[in-house]
Write a structure and sequence with these properties.
The complex is a heterodimer of chains A (about 80) and B (about 260).
Chain A (H helix, E strand, L loop, with lengths): L3 E5 L9 H5 L5 E7 L5 E5 L9 H5 L5 E5 L16
Antiparallel strand pairs in A: 1-4, 2-3
Chain B lengths: L8 E4 L18 H15 L5 E5 L7 H4 L3 E4 L5 H11 L4 E7 H7 L1 H9 L5 E6 L2 E2 L5 E2 L18 H4 L5 H6 L4 E8 L3 H20 L3 E7 L3 H4 L3 H15 L3 E4 L6
Parallel strand pairs in B: 2-3, 2-4, 4-5, 5-9, 8-9
Antiparallel strand pairs in B: 6-7, 8-10
Helix pairs in contact in B: 1-8, 4-5
The chains are: A alpha+beta (about 80), B alpha/beta (about 260).
């Protein structure tokens, strides 16, 4: 199975929970802590993320960056877009 | 700057055509998704320096703070008229207006209808959430029958307040309209379709054949007094029967 992960910009997230509904793997939860603006923010709760991008597509605050394992793990592909 | 993770490929990040400004919209609002899709399309087509947007009055009045392109603010409802002028002065630029339902369907009906009637070669993005969100959830022309707002506390009655205005169907019969579609941004699948619609609309603008009109049925969690998740469910159940998603007018011949 392809593995992925997300990074949530904690201080940009407004805690609308739309990503939790959109996630087919049920791997996002709201944090117990509050961010600087007083919202609970989204975070990964387990490692079942497949990098399907659904959460990032519905995120109204563009707070989610998605990463995915390359299809063949033997070749180490460097993310070209991430260098800049 | 985007973080690099060892052994992982970056598959999705914020488009470079959006600024780093913090979006002022309420949690769960569809406006920012529409902003992002527009900017993704602008980035992918490589037209950032050739695109001019016209911002409306309404919740999205600060659109120019978030879109890293040339923008012009218009008076309330007059975005289409301003966009007409911009397009005529600079016909080689990609012009779009971004308007809400209070702006486009109420005070700006005349400008909108006549702009499309003239077949101005611009893209009109219309966000329909059934209320005036910015001023506190008053009734808009697109408010559903029976829907409670701050100015229709017992629900909208047809006898005194009329029917919801289906402006997208109205303007689709005008010969100046080239591509008319209605989309949503509440699920990942809907977001992908909406992005496709934006791509088509910008491509059609190169053909110089008429106005492209994209309605986005959106939610207003604050105006509807619901949580974002509830508001999306309510929208699916109540808005979509009256405002069905899909293409309303597609170009039959492209050349």
């Amino acid at each position: 199975m392809i593995r992925g992960t997300i990074i949530v910009a904690q201080d940009t997230c407004k805690g609308c929970e739309l990503c939790i509904v959109a996630c087919p793997q049920d791997c996002i939860e709201m944090s117990e802590r509050l961010n600087v603006r007083g919202y609970r923010y989204a975070q990964l709760k387990n490692d079942t993320c497949t990098g399907c991008v659904n959460c990032a597509l519905v995120c109204p605050d563009v707070a989610i960056t998605v990463y995915r394992q390359p299809k063949s793990t033997s070749k180490k592909i460097q993310p070209a877009a991430a260098v800049a | 700057m985007t973080q690099v993770i060892e052994g992982m490929e970056l598959v999705y990040e914020k488009p470079q055509t959006m600024t780093d400004a913090y979006l002022h919209y309420c949690p769960g609002c569809g406006h920012s998704v529409a902003h992002r899709l527009l900017m993704e399309v602008v980035q992918e087509m490589g037209i950032q320096d050739r695109t001019v947007g016209v911002a409306p009055v309404g919740c999205s009045v600060f659109a120019y703070n978030y879109m890293n392109i040339d923008m012009q603010e218009a008076a309330h409802g007059r975005a289409c008229a301003v966009a007409t002028g911009v397009k005529r002065v600079m016909p080689d630029k990609f012009i779009f207006t971004y308007q809400g339902d209070g702006d486009l369907a109420a005070i700006g009906t005349a400008e909108t209808v006549h702009t499309i009637n003239r077949g101005e070669n611009i893209l009109i993005v219309f966000i329909n959430n059934g209320v005036y969100g910015m001023t506190g959830g008053q009734m808009a022309p697109t408010t559903l029958i029976g829907m409670k707002t701050t100015t229709s506390p017992y629900g909208r009655e047809q006898a005194t307040m009329g029917y919801p205005l289906k402006i997208t169907e109205m303007i689709s019969v005008l010969p100046g309209a080239f591509y008319v579609t209605r989309q949503a941004v509440h699920t990942a699948a809907a977001v992908r379709k909406t992005k496709k619609a934006f791509e088509k609309a910008f491509e059609y603008q190169k053909l110089n054949r008429g106005t492209c009109f994209i309605e986005i049925v959106s939610n207003c969690p604050s105006g509807w007094k619901m949580t974002p998740v509830e508001s999306n469910e309510w929208m699916e159940k109540n808005m979509f029967p009256l405002y069905p998603l899909g293409d309303i007018k597609v170009p039959t011949q492209l050349n």
